[in-house]
Design brief:
The structure is a single chain. With about 525 residues, this protein is α/β, with parallel strands linked by helices. About 35% of the residues lie in helices and about 15% in strands. It has helices spanning about 5-10, 10-25, 160, 175-180, 190-205, 225-235, 260-275, 285-290, 295-300, 320-325, 345-355, 365-370, 375-380, 390-415, 470-485, 515, 520-525, and strands at about 35, 45-50, 55, 60, 65-70, 95, 125-130, 135-140, 155, 165-170, 210-220, 245-250, 335-340, 420-425, 455-460, 500-505, 510. Strands 4-5-7-10-8-11-12-13-14-16-17 form an 11-stranded mixed beta sheet, with helices on both faces. A 4-stranded mixed beta sheet has the order 1-6-3-2, with no helix packed on it. Helix 12 crosses helix 13.
């Protein structure tokens, strides 16, 4: 099963509980920033002139400046729905950039998203460090959540900015609005990726105005955002738009795209559901129905737990990311790629957070047999239940190794044949718990997303606050990420030097025994 489908049975159920908690906090959607005719005295450096016009942001007492809700493309609504992004209209006067733009249309589901029906959503946010002479490296953050949920403003990048980077967080079309590939629409099937490319073009044109180096742009993403970075590595249309890449929890060797047939089958299912909902008739032209149906109904027909990806065999993405890396036909820039040591623990523990019981011991073997079929006996012999404290912990270990760890190692191997590559494993055991959740039956450790609170401050309380020791690790990680953005290097050796993988923990950083720890040879033998 894929990440989001497993999550819908486990972590996403917990996420619904957390989403209810978030709603109770009274967090509301912010509307788009409005143009204003310059009023009052602005703090020095809080008015910046972009290619679209002047924007007024804010500055905190440490000199960190924020510019929120800047349009980087025209609203993709009306005639522009399911069209490639168009340039945003310029404005007169000074536009207030003190509130983020609306989240792109997305259903209720995960607490790392904000339910929205907005199609006017192509906005970005810029956070800059204290002003000084010289240009800063630029990091463009592509948020995750399976290309179905999320927005750029949920991730507060102050820590990265404090280390010296100009950080840009981006909204892009999601789900049915960004990846529906019905033939009647004549789209690329990857409009969300096209939106990100438009944002990267905006960054090239405007980074210098914010103190950033337009010739030193790092595209960075995690999970669905990480797969988007895989897409930018593979897409010829992303050539020249970035200079480094950071891929977190997104093995390009096994994901990041889908076939035209898979995408069209999904579109057919959506049309069928629209007919069932009474939004379309069987005899109606598909395009006419899709274009007049409101976003809420489209999302209901599309579903909540899809996992869309750009379509291969197109001008946008001719090859799968894996094939592009294998053949060297990708945008060759230095890459930092990494994975969390215990990715799948959160998926299993989500069932408990949602009120379910821990997986019973007798549930382990049937789960393995259902997933691995004829290979199940070998998997059970390699991962016997007796080695683990619980069935849930055992299943999470199997899934982590098979779905995340080994494919990420393969990704680093492919990349390192052609371009400078560094690999890390986030292996910290004492990580923040999900906020508002009960104590789990086993430790989450370095679960999926566990590294994010060390890099960002979340707008909503997804995790418990970092301890002093965790803050120390966070400082070291943000320093490492910004150093990579600036130089394309890390303090540890390149992957090609003996397959080096650095383990990131609150203790001394050292080389991970990655292939043995995650049974790489065993999994290769099952292919």
């Amino acid at each position: 099963m894929t990440e989001i489908k497993r999550a819908s049975k486990g972590l996403t159920a917990a996420a619904l509980t957390l989403a209810t908690l978030t709603t109770g906090l009274g967090i509301a959607l912010a509307g788009p920033a409005r143009a204003a005719t310059g009023h009052g005295a602005a703090k020095a450096g809080t008015v910046v002139t972009t290619t679209g016009g002047a924007v007024r942001g804010t500055a905190d007492r440490d000199g960190i400046r924020s510019f929120l809700g800047i349009p980087y493309a025209a609203p993709p609504q009306g005639a522009l729905r399911w069209a490639s992004p168009r340039p945003a209209a310029p404005w007169a006067g000074v536009r207030e950039a003190t509130a983020p733009g609306p989240s792109c249309a997305q259903p209720q589901g995960l607490p790392i998203g904000t339910p929205s029906e907005s199609e006017d959503c192509l906005y970005l946010n810029v956070t800059t460090p204290t002003q000084r002479a010289g240009k800063r490296p630029v990091i463009v953050w592509i948020h995750g959540a399976s290309l179905m949920f999320g927005s750029g403003d949920l991730y507060g990048p102050t820590r990265l900015a404090a280390e010296g980077a100009v950080v840009v967080t981006v909204n892009y079309r999601l789900g049915v609005m960004g990846f529906l590939a019905d033939p009647a629409l004549n789209s690329s099937g990857g409009l969300g990726l096209e939106d990100q490319q438009a944002a990267l073009r905006w960054v090239r044109a405007n980074a210098a105005a914010f103190g950033g180096d337009p010739a030193n742009v790092t595209v960075m993403g995690e999970s669905g955002g990480g797969y988007s970075v895989c897409g930018h590595l593979a897409s010829p249309k992303s050539a020249g738009l970035f200079d480094r890449a950071i891929v977190q929890s997104a093995p390009c060797a096994t994901g990041g795209s889908r076939t035209r047939q898979e995408a069209e089958d999904e579109a057919k299912a959506t049309i069928t559901k629209l007919v069932e909902l009474g939004a379309c008739t069987k005899d109606e032209h598909t395009e006419a129905c899709l274009r007049r149906t409101d976003a809420a109904t489209l999302m209901k027909a599309y579903g909540t737990w899809n996992e869309p990806r750009p379509v291969i065999g197109t001008d946008l993405m001719p090859l799968t990311p894996a094939e592009a890396l294998r053949t060297g036909k990708f945008n060759r820039v230095p890459v930092l790629v990494g994975v969390n040591h215990d990715e799948e623990r959160g998926m299993i523990l989500g069932q408990e957070l949602a009120g379910g019981r821990p997986m019973p011991a007798e549930g382990y073997e049937p789960a393995i047999r259902a997933e691995f079929g004829s290979r199940a006996d070998a998997v059970l012999a390699r991962y016997p239940l007796s080695r683990f404290g619980s069935a849930g912990e055992a299943l999470a270990t199997v899934r982590t190794d098979h779905t995340w760890s080994v494919p990420t190692l393969d990704t680093a191997k492919l990349l390192s044949q052609w371009t400078p590559t560094r690999m890390f494993e986030f292996s910290e055991r004492d990580t923040p718990q999900w906020a508002g959740g009960k104590a789990p039956s086993f430790e989450p450790r370095a679960q999926h997303m566990a590294e994010l609170p060390y890099l960002f401050d979340f707008k909503t309380p997804l995790f418990e606050a970092l301890t002093a020791e965790q803050q120390t690790l966070a400082k070291r990680m943000t320093d490492t990420w910004v150093d990579f953005a600036e130089t394309g290097r890390t303090d540890w050796p390149a992957f090609r030097n003996g397959g080096y993988v650095q383990s990131l923990t609150s203790g001394p950083w050292k080389r991970a025994d990655f292939t043995a720890d995650h049974h790489d040879t065993f999994w290769k033998s099952l292919h």
